[in-house]
Structures are given as C-alpha cells and as structure tokens.
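Section 5: illustrative case.
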C-alpha cells in the first residue's frame, strides 16, 4: 500500500514593494522628487533608502544605477546603493556640486525632528541618531550629522559635505559623481532609456530576443561635465548600461507671482530674502498662502524668531507658560496623528478643518492666560508695521502642527492694532481671501497696493490694501514644471500617474531601520 503524500502548504512570502509601486513612472525608472507630499529633508532621505532597499530585494542581480540629482535624496540613494551592493552607481548633477540648493541660504532653518512637535522627541536635531526614543540605536543613514538645535540651510550643506567626506573615506564601493552636466543630454537619455526598457519588457513577456540595454555615454554629458573634484574618484568607464534610473531632480518651480499686476516676484523658498531687514517692523507685509512656507514667512516677518521651534522655546522659558502649553499638548498630538493618517488616505479637507479647530481651541485657552499672552507679545518685533496672512481657503492647508499651532496662537494673542501689542507689530490672519491683482505706485499711491476679496466675490465687494512694502507669495509648485514627468514625457493628468501620487501620501518612518 502506497503512502499518501502529505501536502505541504505554500508559505505566502511578503516583500517590501510600496516604494517600487509609488515611485515607478516608467519601465525601470523611479522618481523620488516629483509629486511628493511628504517633502521634509528627512522624508527625502528615508524615501531614497527605502527605494534602494526595495529595488535590491526585488532584483538581487541588478548591478548599475543612474541617479539624476545630487540633493539629499539623490546622494542618500547613491550611497545607500553602494552599501547595498550595486557595483556601478553614477550620479549626475547640472550644478557644480552636491547640495547646491542649501548653500549660502541663512534665512531658512531646518531640523529632522523639529516638526514632530508636540511629540516629546522633537528637540534634538541630530540625524539619524537620537537620544530619547526607542529607535535611537536602530536608525541608519549614509548621510548623518550632529546638531542640538535647528540649523540654517547653509550650515546643513556644510555638515552634509562633512558627512559625505567621512562616508567616502570609509567606503569600499563609491559612486561616480559627475557635475556640470547638460540637462538636455540627460533628459534625452532618460526618455530613450524608458522607451527601450518598455520594449525589452514586452519582448521578455513574449519570449522574444531582447534588444540591448541603452548605453549611457559620459562623453555626451556636455562640455562642462566633470567628476566632482572635492573627493577622490577613479576615472569612469566611457559608458555603462544602467539597470535602473532614479530621478531626484527636484520638485519643480514655485509659483511666486500674484495672478495679475506688477508686484515684484517673491524670492524662492530656498533663498535669502529681506523679511528680517531692520526696516520691516515699520512696514506692511502681506503673505499669501495657507501652507508651511506661508506660515513660516509670516512668523519670520512678525517675530524675533527665525523658526517656530525657537518661538516655542521662548514661551516655555517661563515655567508657568510651559505648564499651560503642556496642558494642551495631548489634544494637539492626537489631532496631529489623526491628520497625518487621514492625509495618507484621503484628500478631503476635513482633516485640515479638524486640525485647525484643535489649534484654535488650544490658542483660545492659552490666550486667556495673562502670562502666556505676555510671552507671546515679547516675541514680536518692535514697530508700528503689520503682517497680514491671507488664505484663499477656509482652513490652513498642508502644514505641520508646529506651524499651524504657532500661527493660531499669534492670531489669538496679537492684535492688528499695534497699540495693544506692547509696542510690537500688528497681525491679522484672514481666510476665504485671495489677491485679485496688484496695483503699481503712482499718483497719490507711493507704494504697491493689492486688490483682495473672496474667491468668488463680485468686484464691488473687493477692497484695496494700500501701502504694501512686501508681498510674499507661497502658492506651491507649478505642475507644468515638475521635473520627473518632463524627463520622461509623462502627462501629470494621466490616471496612472495620479494614482501613484496618491500612494506617495503614505507617511514615512522617522528613520530607515537596520
């Protein structure tokens, strides 16, 4: 009698593939920068590590990567790829060196954890190491730096350079870093690479002979292209055939102008501006937008602080104020967690309304405390000027809880009437308002003016805001300038692209884990 075979149940093997699905934009082409929702420096670095890790697990035979862009995402991806075993990694950049966006920018302050407020680990700003969390010893990142508090973008560039050199000195396998490349040459290669890889995929599925891979020739990169001279590099081969291309070429151009009128354009977010000039406290500053950039600029113009974490630190220097803030943090943290999870799954603005309500209630509670209000007024720059923040929508938009709470607390404590602010500037936060057009100086008007009103209001209800010294426009990125779709000729209205953008809303971990 033959023994009956015992059926061995199959084991379902899970693999990490979320980043591969979210960031794939063409055959074997992945985009780390275009259409991203979570865009902090830390988010960019973690996103890059996860993509490289998932690529390596999905295709252990892959050897070569071409990475376009030497910002934090591109560089962290390159170093992580070398550590993961990719034998040939080439990074190309049109600027003369890595991290160019941050260099020389002293008006913007950054920190990997500052925007996790009111979580208790928001204070120390080293990365990836952290002294006060269970994951302190488990986070990994090829690029690392030490900082006890938020630092300027210019300082970050210096520390990233330092971290890159330290990694370079210790690494066995290193990428080729080619700077000064021709954008057109890279664009042409990426377009052709995507077409070739799509054809090869179809040939593979049909069991047909496959065309050769697209060759990337260093000589085609333009007359200015060269190996970055600040690290020791071996001469690259004349060409190589990348298995995959990773795009990390930035998010696109910002919308910096008002729709109609001669008002001067706003400086780019990652550039220095005049909002901290000594004359500003005596002037009128109008900020347009409801996101992080607009809130930060309103806070910088209005207060003595360079970033909102410094504002909170100043408030908490008084024990009674610290206690009052502590009493509100649990509710704010709950709202923050709900907003982040809601935003991963839905575009409905109800999440913003919920978070605004939580901040508004906390701000009202705190504004009724004389000690809190006194500390807030001490944060104001002294002068008879004012800052006006106009938000087109009925709520603030995508903004970290720290920024959202700080601006609501200022709105609750600070009057537009400077006489009520102990000599500090005035402030007004107004929703459902947009600028219709700018009006130039002339005749009795000595400065620019703005015509404002509700988004769908009749012209008769518009009002003129006179004597505007500074107009700050923070309307986000122009969709027509997003680099990724341009590099591979992808339509940003394409359903597949929009669905993958939805996947990009999923919140990233604080660090990549060992």
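Designed sequence:
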């Amino acid at each position: 009698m033959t023994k009956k075979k015992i059926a061995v149940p199959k084991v379902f093997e899970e693999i990490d593939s979320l980043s591969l699905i979210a960031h794939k934009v063409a055959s074997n082409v992945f985009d780390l920068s275009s259409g991203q929702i979570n865009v902090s420096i830390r988010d960019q670095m973690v996103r890059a590590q996860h993509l490289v890790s998932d690529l390596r697990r999905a295709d252990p035979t892959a050897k070569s990567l071409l990475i376009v862009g030497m910002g934090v995402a591109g560089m962290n991806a390159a170093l992580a790829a070398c550590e993961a075993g990719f034998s040939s990694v080439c990074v190309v950049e049109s600027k003369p060196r890595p991290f160019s966006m941050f260099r020389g920018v002293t008006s913007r302050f950054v920190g990997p954890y500052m925007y996790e407020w009111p979580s208790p680990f928001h204070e120390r700003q080293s990365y990836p190491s952290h002294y006060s969390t269970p994951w302190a010893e488990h986070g990994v990142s090829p690029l690392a730096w030490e900082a006890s508090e938020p630092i300027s973008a210019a300082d970050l560039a210096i520390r990233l350079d330092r971290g890159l050199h330290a990694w370079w000195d210790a690494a066995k396998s290193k990428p080729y870093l080619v700077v000064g490349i021709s954008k057109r040459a890279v664009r042409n290669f990426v377009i052709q690479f995507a077409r070739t890889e799509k054809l090869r995929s179809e040939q593979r599925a049909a069991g047909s002979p496959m065309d050769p891979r697209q060759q990337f020739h260093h000589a085609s990169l333009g007359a200015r292209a060269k190996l970055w001279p600040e690290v020791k590099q071996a001469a690259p081969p004349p060409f190589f055939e990348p298995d995959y291309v990773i795009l990390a070429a930035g998010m696109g151009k910002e919308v910096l102008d008002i729709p109609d009128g001669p008002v001067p354009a706003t400086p780019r977010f990652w550039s220095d501006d005049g909002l901290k000039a000594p004359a500003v406290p005596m002037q009128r500053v109008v900020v347009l937008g409801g996101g992080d950039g607009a809130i930060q600029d309103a806070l910088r113009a209005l207060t003595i602080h360079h970033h909102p974490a410094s504002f909170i630190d100043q408030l908490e220097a008084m024990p009674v104020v610290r206690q009052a803030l502590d009493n509100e943090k649990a509710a704010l943290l709950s709202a923050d967690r709900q907003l982040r999870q809601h935003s991963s799954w839905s575009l409905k603005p109800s999440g913003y309304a919920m978070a605004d309500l939580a901040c508004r209630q906390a701000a009202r509670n705190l504004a009724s405390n004389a000690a809190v209000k006194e500390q807030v007024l001490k944060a104001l720059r002294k002068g008879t000027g004012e800052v006006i923040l106009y938000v087109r929508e009925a709520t603030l938009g995508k903004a970290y809880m720290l920024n959202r709470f700080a601006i609501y607390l200022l709105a609750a404590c600070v009057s537009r009437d400077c006489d009520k602010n102990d000599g500090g500037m005035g402030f007004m936060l107004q929703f459902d308002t947009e600028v219709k057009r700018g009006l130039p100086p002339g005749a009795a008007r000595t400065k620019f003016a703005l015509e404002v009103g509700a988004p769908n209001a009749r012209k008769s209800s518009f009002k003129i805001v006179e004597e505007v010294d500074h107009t700050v426009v923070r309307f986000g990125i122009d969709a027509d300038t997003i680099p990724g779709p341009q590099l591979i000729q992808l339509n940003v209205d394409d359903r597949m692209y929009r669905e993958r953008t939805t996947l990009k809303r999923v919140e990233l971990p604080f660090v990549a884990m060992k």
